[in-house]
Design a protein that fits this description.
Number of strands: 3
Helix content: 55-70%
Oligomer: single chain
Structural class: mainly alpha
Largest sheet: 3 strands, antiparallel
Length: 686
């Protein structure tokens, strides 16, 4: 069942012709990136001590370092071996390799498998694929594989989860002839029994000979293992019910199957078994029906990925190194708008590359979702996501965003770089929320990981004090001491400091998203740039705030007197770098709010509130001894730079609206809205 039969990849590429220099350069850069990621993975594994690298592989070795091929595969000391007896038989030739040589060979062999897998996936993309995309597909795919959790686990643990995936893809997309296809899929099933789910896919799509060859190969390989390892085969197939119970506890977070999820939800015993079997039957029925439909539609790679996702869900144990099928599901095209088309692959890639607590906030109510996030994505792919069929005209040409041209720049001497297209349409909400969440998680991680010792931070604090005295702006002590004598004012600023830092920016973004989407894009980009520049300041200039400067007489009015060796920041103490004071993003974000409100609010009283918010914020950060005056200056500087970068990269905020003779920045309403757009006509980068 070759790729050409299903309109995939290169065989259906369009826009053929010579490769322009830009694409050639991009291809070289992407291949270099893939090489760097591969080298990083190898270095990360080989730099570990023998007891820390390839931990699952090394549990199969004897004290002398050779693979533990003698004795039971599932006996004492080999509880990490979760493969089939046939897998143990295949590994038996490695029994004479020394531990160090085995580890090095295994690492480089895994790298080779990942590269081959990436090339096969790039070749199998459902067509038609533009020539530009086909040239860049291979390095992009290999890079995504390298950073994915399953591949990283396979590298570090010494697991074989890549091999069954590669065998299935080679059988379906590379080899010629149904018999050879079935042999490779059958070998994959002998290594991982849930690959037998590909038999119904082959059978129902007219590849009955391949399905029969799969069953025959699986039976032959399993019989061979029974003949050579009878005791282990009995232990695996009968005592452990096809491997269930091998490895770690079934309710471990690493087990992303329906069985593991039910156990984590507190369902046990016969009820859990009955519920698991019922859910598994439903998932198999619905998932395979969808897979068959997409295979007949010419999207064989998507059908294969969906079948793999079904296998992940219904396996008694589906460890992270076995979840590559979920990443392959990113090839599906979901959404008929161009703004929606990126959502599904972004969700899959983020889920398969980042820890769950990065994608979802650490809230008790979200714990069931966070603990089972990979399973939820697999189930969504197999049973729920409405992928666009190739027969739909939107498969090739999704509804585009409404783009406009920016008005001429006010400052002719300021060079502009037309880097972003300016769009009036509303971006996809799910993607925006995910990006905001992941972006803030990255911001928090970097902010807390900045290497700044107390001595360095205090030294920088004394430098700031001397500079402010020289400039005559050292008003922090006056504000802090004066606040302590006016209780109502102290309570007001303490409350203001703690309550509005996140609430107001998020509220502004929400209102702009709903009412003025183009202004939302502009404001969101400026805030992102300002935050990134703030991280640079935290990194290079760790600074102790006034409340953590001993001997200067400051009092933390929010959290009380401080132990300078173990400062207190309330519930955020363990996750916040308290020496990240310069620049003050507390004031910077408030200033951003003020600028956005003044420019976008339709009524004067709203604009007045926009002015008051940064004013109250700067008073709060100074009076509560949480920032210096120069911190506020730094916050204003990064916000100004953020707006400046947006201006340089995308032009002025105002745009030339379609069909109108003059630039506008007013809100569209009713039927006057251009097709596909909503909210304000104020321009912004996409």
């Amino acid at each position: 069942m070759a790729n050409a039969e299903h309109g995939g990849g290169r065989d259906s590429a369009v826009d053929t012709g010579t490769v322009d220099p830009g694409i050639r350069t991009a291809r070289v850069v992407l291949w270099l990136l893939a090489g760097v990621l591969a080298a990083r993975q190898i270095a990360a594994v080989l730099s570990l001590s023998p007891g820390e690298r390839l931990t699952d592989l090394e549990t199969w070795t004897r004290a002398g370092g050779a693979l533990q091929a003698k004795g039971s595969l599932y006996g004492a000391g080999t509880d990490h071996f979760t493969g089939t007896p046939f897998a143990g038989l295949v590994l038996k030739p490695l029994a004479h390799a020394a531990e160090q040589a085995l580890g090095v060979g295994w690492t480089f062999g895994t790298l080779l498998l990942v590269v081959v897998l990436g090339l096969v996936v790039a070749r199998a993309l459902p067509g038609p694929v533009p020539r530009r995309s086909s040239l860049l597909a291979a390095p992009v795919t290999i890079s995504l594989l390298m950073v994915s959790l399953p591949v990283r686990n396979a590298f570090h643990l010494g697991q074989t989860g890549i091999i069954p995936v590669l065998l299935v893809l080679l059988g379906l997309f590379v080899v010629r002839g149904e018999r050879f296809c079935g042999v490779l899929v059958g070998l994959a099933a002998a290594l991982q029994p849930t690959m037998l789910l590909f038999v119904p896919l082959l059978w129902l799509t007219g590849r009955r000979r391949a399905g029969a060859a799969t069953l025959a190969t699986f039976a032959a390989a399993t019989a061979l293992a029974w003949a050579a390892l009878a005791h282990d085969s009995w232990t695996y197939w009968v005592h452990h019910v096809a491997g269930a119970g091998l490895g770690g506890p079934a309710d471990s977070l690493a087990n992303q199957s329906l069985h593991g999820a039910l156990l984590r939800l507190g369902v046990h015993g016969p009820l859990e078994i009955a519920l698991f079997l019922a859910l598994a039957a439903a998932v198999i029925t619905l998932g395979l029906r969808r897979a068959v439909r997409y295979a007949r539609d010419g999207q064989l790679l998507l059908a294969v990925a969906l079948t793999g996702c079904v296998a992940v869900a219904v396996s008694p144990t589906a460890w992270q190194h076995q979840l590559l099928w979920v990443l392959l599901a990113a090839v599906g095209r979901a959404g008929r708008r161009a703004a929606d088309r990126k959502v599904w692959p972004a969700l899959v890639i983020l889920t398969l590359t980042l820890p769950a607590d990065v994608t979802l906030p650490y809230m008790t109510v979200l714990q069931p979702l966070r603990d089972n996030l990979l399973l939820i994505v697999a189930l969504a792919a197999a049973c729920a996501v409405p992928f666009v069929p190739r027969a739909d005209e939107r498969f090739r040409t999704p509804v585009p965003a409404t783009y406009v041209k920016p008005v001429p720049a006010r400052w002719a001497r300021l060079p502009l770089l037309p880097f972003w297209h300016r769009a009036l349409t509303r971006p996809n909400l799910i993607l925006e929320l995910v990006v905001i969440r992941v972006g803030y998680s990255g911001y928090s991680s970097i902010r807390s990981a900045v290497d700044g010792s107390r001595a360095t931070a205090e030294a920088h604090g004394h430098t700031v004090v001397r500079l402010e005295r020289a400039l005559g702006i050292n008003i922090e002590h006056w504000a802090n001491s004066g606040l302590q004598h006016v209780s109502w004012l102290k309570n007001f600023f303490d409350f203001y400091y703690e309550s509005f830092h996140f609430v107001i920016p998020l509220a502004i973004l929400a209102v702009l998203y709903v009412r003025r989407p183009a202004d939302y894009r502009w404001a969101r980009a400026a805030l992102g740039f300002a935050t990134l520049l703030g991280l640079v300041g935290f990194w290079f200039f760790p600074l102790a705030p006034p409340r953590l400067m001993p001997g200067l007489g400051f009092v933390d009015t929010v959290h009380g007197p401080q132990d300078f060796g173990k400062p207190d920041y309330g519930v955020m103490t363990d996750v916040t770098n308290q020496y990240a004071a310069m620049p003050s993003l507390h004031f910077g974000w408030a200033l951003w709010c003020g600028v956005v409100i003044v420019l976008c609010a339709p009524k004067p009283w709203m604009k007045l509130l926009g002015v008051l918010h940064p004013l109250f914020t700067v008073c709060a950060i100074l009076a509560t001894a949480n920032h210096w005056v120069l911190d506020a200056v730094g916050g204003a500087a990064v916000v100004a730079a953020g707006f400046g970068l947006v201006y340089v990269l995308a032009g002025p905020r105002r745009v030339q609206l379609p069909g109108l003779p003059s630039p506008r920045a007013a809100t569209w309403s009713g039927t006057a809205m251009p097709a596909g757009s909503a909210g304000s006509a104020s321009g912004a980068p996409k």
